[in-house]
Amino acid sequence: MEAVKIKEDLYWVGAIDWNVRNFHGYSTLRGTTYNSYLLVDEKITLFDTVKYGFEEEMLSRIRNIVNPEKINYLVVNHIEPDHAGGFLKVVEIIKPEKIFITKKGKEGLEKYFHRSDFPFEEAVTEKEIRIGKRTIKFIETPMIHWPDSMISYIPEEKILISQDAFGAHYATSNRFDDEVDYCALIQESAKYYANIVLPYSPRVQNLLKTIKDLGFEIKIICPDHGVVWRKNTGEIIKLYEKWSNYIADPKAVIIYDTMWKSTEKMAYAIMEGIVKENVEARIFKLSVSDITDVMTEVMLAKGLVLGSPTLNNGLMPTVASFVHYMKGLRPRNKIGAAFGSYGWSGESVKLLNEILNEIKAEVVHEGIKIKFAPDRETLKQCEELGKIVAKKIKNSL
Ligand code: FEO
């Protein structure tokens, strides 16, 4: 398999996983890539390895350029198994003189592989190494995505090798942002941020500030998933600024499930109210929706309206599962409201309001709960709730 030249002496040598559809629960409908980069200088340096099972694909691309045994340095930016699962096999073949990694990364790999005889050299923020004509500067980025994470910057080339940050689960035969369906790329980048990076948004803001403070000019971003950003580099950085500051679009999502269609009728009446105020709205019924796609819409929308019937004094399982997932991803800065039907006890609206409070949403209505089935009057109340949400969204602009 071929290596792909990014710039003089820098090559993509990763692997394409066309068929993965479930990435620890994240739906990867377009597959993904595990990216590695080879920089040929006096010290030949490999940045990251690949998921276990994809080592041969990576090594065959490296062999296009150099004999893998000639590689001097390995930089491990992140130890999650989608990047370091192939570490052991690759290290046994290339036998690097040095492996640059953070302290947490070293501890993690020693535990993953139950060995401590690797030639690790600790990388810390602002440490730099000279590899010939070029320099590599490291910045630790704990929790973007794991405690071990770091990024590598090559100042002479203005290239950032960013591991998970700025990535997307997007398998394509093209390697650059200007060669693929750009709408699909932005959609996958947003989905990746919403489902992987969102909880660590304050750290993303710190990282963007650190990059500015250090004066790193970035022309090309090489992430560990998806394509290399060489044309729209500024745009993806701007999107990370927007998403990490919890800035959403002036629209609403209504997320619900239903047993006998009463809660569903309420959802559609709420949407009517939102749309009548000229605010865009989207509805997601959880029994037929993918939660990772729904989470993307949550991140992108200012308004968040949650609905569930009461079942066994609680939420429907699909709603309980989704709000648990959503809460862990820590969306912020939402305008929220809740609704649901019930037969006798009616706890669902209270429980959904608690969730909205936990994610620090501005709850703009006490919520609507309707016994058994809505009638014309109660559907009107739902429509009014939608209008209140929509007006709040418009006022937040
Ligand atoms: Fe792509 Fe956090 O690993």
TrEMBL record:
Is Phosphoprotein found in the keyword set?
A: no
Swiss-Prot/TrEMBL keywords:
Hydrolase
Q: Please list the GO terms describing molecular function.
A: electron transfer activity; FMN binding; hydrolase activity; metal ion binding; oxidoreductase activity
Chain ranges of the Flavodoxin-like domain: 252-390
The Swiss-Prot or TrEMBL record describes its family as follows: In the N-terminal section; belongs to the zinc metallo-hydrolase group 3 family.
What organism is this sequence from?
Thermodesulfobacterium geofontis
Q: Superkingdom, according to UniProt?
A: Bacteria
Output this protein's name: MBL fold metallo-hydrolase
Q: Record's InterPro entries?
A: Flavodoxin/NO_synth, Flavoprotein-like_sf, Metallo-B-lactamas, ODP_dom, RibonucZ/Hydroxyglut_hydro, Rubredoxin-O_OxRdtase
Q: Which SMART domains match?
A: Lactamase_B
Identify the stretch annotated as signal peptide in this record. Answer: none
Among the Pfam families in the record, one is: ODP
